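Before a computer can learn anything about folding, someone has to put a protein's shape into writing. The three-dimensional part falls to structure tokens, numbers that each stand for a local backbone shape. The protein below has been through that process, and both of its lines are reproduced in full.
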Amino acid sequence: MTKSLKFQELEYIRFDPCAGDEGEVSCRTIRLVKARKQHPCFLGTAPGEDGHLIQPGDVYRSERALIDGDYWGNYAVCVPCMDKWLTDIGHRPRVQIAI
């Protein structure tokens, strides 16, 4: 899976599109998975965005967490959105070495 990613897997896992929100988050599970069906991209559904979907076969960040002790949130964020965000905040892509 990592060969097609621009950044290290750990950077995608540490990426937090909700950082700074005031909700209490617990029981959090984050992983990179390959889509078996379409999912709306969480960042793509933000106001002013295009509402794009993660397609079957695409790798995405899946997060499930208990919010404020009473709501289970499930979030999916596509790799292109994470790549853009990580680049915008100053992360550098991993070095590609040709052998």
